[in-house]
């Protein structure tokens, strides 16, 4: 079976966000879905982060959110995450989707355009 793939700069993005635990992740994910800022959010437990913060090396257990959305939603998405995120400087990184299954990308668009 052949699948149609799109390979170009598109309007679609993946946003990575770390949160302190699953409860915070679930709360942010549900808000983003309900407010049509994301089509899908994967909430992945069991992440271990090691990072430099305020003069020293820190280690924390965290949860990762993988958010599928569109570029035109990014500013509102970041604003909504910042309003609900407990960290002073949360990790919010947007990456362009440069290719993917056409039907999935169309689903993202349809989902974010729903009434």
Automatic annotation (TrEMBL):
Gene Ontology biological process terms from the UniProt entry: response to metal ion
One Pfam family matching this protein: CutA1
Gene3D superfamilies reported in the protein's UniProt record: 3.30.70.120
Family matches, as InterPro entries: Ion_tolerance_CutA (IPR004323), N-reg_PII-like_a/b (IPR011322), N-reg_PII/ATP_PRibTrfase_C (IPR015867)
UniProt GO MF annotations: copper ion binding
PANTHER family per the UniProt record, alphabetical: DIVALENT CATION TOLERANCE CUTA-RELATED, FI09726P
Family: Belongs to the CutA family.
The protein, known as: Dihydroorotate dehydrogenase
Species assigned in the record: Vulcanisaeta souniana JCM 11219
């Amino acid at each position: 079976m052949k699948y149609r793939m799109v390979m170009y700069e598109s309007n679609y993005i993946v946003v990575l966000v770390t949160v302190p635990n699953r409860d915070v992740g679930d709360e942010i994910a549900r808000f983003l879905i309900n407010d049509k800022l994301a089509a899908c959010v994967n909430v992945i437990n069991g992440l271990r982060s090691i990072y430099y913060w305020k003069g020293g090396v820190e280690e924390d257990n965290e949860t990762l959110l993988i958010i599928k959305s569109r570029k035109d939603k990014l500013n509102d998405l970041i604003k909504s995450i910042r309003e609900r995120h407990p960290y002073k400087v949360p990790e919010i990184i947007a990456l362009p989707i440069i290719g993917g299954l056409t039907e999935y990308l169309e689903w993202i668009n349809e989902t974010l355009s729903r009434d």
